[in-house]
Amino acid sequence: MFERLTGTATFNLLYKGLEVSATRHKVISNNIANVNTPMFKRQIVTFEDEMAKVFDGKTDIVGRREDDRHIPIGEIDYRQVGPTTIKDRIHVMRNDKNNVDIDVEMSDLAKNTMTYQIHASRLAAMFSGLNDVITRGGRA
Amino acid sequence: MKIDYTHPLHGVRSKPEKPQTNAKEQWNSFLGQLQTAITEVDQLGKESNKLTQDAVLGRVDNLHDVMIAAEKAKTAMNLTIEVRNKALEAYKEIMRMNF
Amino acid sequence: MSMFKGIDISASGLTAERLRMDVISNNIANVNTTRTEDGDPFRRKMVIFQARNAHGQRPYQDRINPQEPGKGVRVNAIIEDMTPFKLEYEPNHPDADSEGYVRRPNINIVHEMVDMITATRAYEANVTCINSAKDINSAALNIGSRG
């Protein structure tokens, strides 16, 4: 019964977003720690593009399909999409074959931290709203 | 599909209810739902406790898992308490009626 | 399993860069050391960094699994730079050889200063990572504090 409150698409996306940001922070930290390591290649986390392709505007899991057996063959459930860490070989390398650009990493770090804070703040607001409605909504 | 209440991405799809005309059946179905809710609250509370213990023992990977589990348990508990309160109020209201 | 893996990674970066700065400082301090215990002039030292992979720290396991974030960096070794010593003509110097040449350390101050700046910048970047990790933790804690 409670999954109707916490199983909405917004909640799921926010929760997944937290996981992605947490992974991304570790990857960026590792890139920065290895900024002077010869032969090291930076890693990045891909998620947003894959999720955008799959998610496709599903507004809510409740009320869209009558039966889970109606999933067309080959379609991926957006709830299964997760962060993927891959090696980034595209960027230009220095003489020691290290391709970490510290300025890129620092800006990624700032963006990622803010993204995490946004997700957490939205989740907090959702819970706060739910609790408000539950405890005070019924009073005249 | 096995429903795992600890996994935040498993949704429960209830079948739409048939319209109930019998008051007694409605009351019993309501009590059934309340019982289910209490069981679920208990489950959520246990999961939250387990994650909190894991956090102290250093076994948890992400802090937000712990916080969200705690919030879910708290919200579910609040909801159950309010539902129980409303049921009690309704009961008292009925008992107060003079026939 | 720990919720502080990100901080561990940055801490390894701090340790490695700090060690590198110490080695560079030592090089600079010894730029004019013409005689050490073994009789030779001071040889420039360098650090070898290596990325820790997600499972082990042994040098031959250095293939990083691209699917997992790594575990930071470690200093594999401090080795001596084997480029030749500089020769300066100073016949009156006590360490001059038979032809009046003094062998001086193979240290270039400008090069060392550039390395020092690079190491400092990397050190500061790792500190910023740790601060960001703290911000992230605060944000997670705030999920439950209202209502």
What do you see in this structure?
The complex is a heterotrimer of chains A (140), B (99) and C (147). Chain A is 51% helix and 6% strand. Chain A has a two-stranded antiparallel ribbon. In chain A, helix 2 runs antiparallel to helix 4. Chain A has one domain. With 140 residues, chain A is mainly alpha-helical. Chain A is built from four helices and two strands; from the N terminus they run H-H-E-H-E-H. With 99 residues, chain B is mostly helical. Chain B has one domain. Chain B has two helices and no strands. In chain B, helix 1 packs antiparallel against helix 2. Chain B is elongated, with a radius of gyration of 18 Å. The relative contact order of chain B is 0.11. With 147 residues, chain C is an alpha+beta fold. Chain C is elongated. Chains in contact: A-B, A-C, B-C. At the A-B interface, helix 1, helix 2 and helix 4 of A face helix 1 and helix 2 of B.
Quick summary:
The complex is a heterotrimer of chains A (140), B (99) and C (147). With 140 residues, chain A is mainly alpha-helical.
Structure class of chain C: alpha+beta
- Distance between the ends of chain C: 31 Å
SSE run of chain A: HHEHEH
> How many structural domains are formed by the residues of chain A?
1
The percentage of residues in β strands of chain C lies in 15-25%
As residue ranges, the low-confidence spans of chain A are: 59-68
- Name the shape of chain A in a single word: elongated
Largest sheet of chain A: 2 strands, antiparallel
List the helices and strands and how they pair.
The complex is a heterotrimer of chains A (140), B (99) and C (147).
Chain A: H1 3-6, H2 9-33, E1 43-46, H3 48-55, E2 84-87, H4 102-136
Antiparallel strand pairs in A: 1-2
Helix pairs in contact in A: 2-4
Chain B: H1 23-56, H2 63-96
Helix pairs in contact in B: 1-2
Chain C: H1 5-29, E1 45-51, E2 73-80, E3 86-89, E4 101-104, H2 109-141
Antiparallel strand pairs in C: 1-2, 3-4
Task: Looking at this protein, list some descriptive labels.
heterotrimer; A: 140 residues; mainly alpha; two-stranded antiparallel ribbon; 6% strand; elongated; B: 99 residues
